[in-house]
Design goal:
Elements lengths: L38 E2 L2 E2 L10
Antiparallel strand pairs: 1-2
């Protein structure tokens, strides 16, 4: 099992504020690392976004 974090490791949003408590992995389980706004179905939603754009 992956280590659990309090904040999304992509955007730093608290995972407790993310819908469902995190994004979804490829197997539809909840990600303990990334929020639902950054990560869904095992992939980043905007893989080419820059830090400035975020």
């Amino acid at each position: 099992m992956a280590e659990s974090y309090k904040n999304c490791q992509s955007c730093s949003m608290p995972l407790k504020k993310s819908p469902n408590g995190g994004g979804t992995n490829a197997d539809k389980s909840i990600s303990a690392i990334y929020c639902a706004y950054c990560y869904a179905d095992g992939k980043f939603k905007q893989p080419n976004i820059s830090v400035t754009e975020m």
